[in-house]
Amino acid sequence: MEMPEVIPICYCGNPAKLNMSWSNDNPGRRFFGCKKFGNGFQKPCRFFSWFDPPLTPHARVVLLGLMKKVKTLENARKRERRTWCLVVVIVTVLLFLKL
Ligand SMILES: [Zn+2]
């Protein structure tokens, strides 16, 4: 991730932190927010500023499609791993019963 040239200062007076949005409206779009955000001990301010330009409707559709594909593949891999674990357990039990 390249560093932005100008880092805005949030309402607390700290340099803002660059985050990435994963909302359906702005997938992958980066924004500046309070660096205390996500830190349970400190209360973040409401500073918010987009870093990336808005996504074109086409880019949004493409990105959402890709994200969906990644999710599907991840789920398939998880299922596959579960199946293999089950096979190993069954084979182990069968071997154990034969002895
Ligand atoms: Zn702040």
Automatic annotation (TrEMBL):
Keyword set, alphabetical order: Metal-binding, Zinc, Zinc-finger
Superkingdom of origin organism: Eukaryota
InterPro entries from the UniProt entry: Znf_GRF
All copies of domain GRF-type, residue ranges: 10-54
Molecular function via GO: zinc ion binding
Keyword RNA-binding attributed: no
Pfam families hit by this protein: Zn_ribbon_GRF (PF06839)
PROSITE patterns named in the record: ZF_GRF (PS51999)
The protein's name: GRF-type domain-containing protein
Organism from which the protein derives: Gossypium stocksii
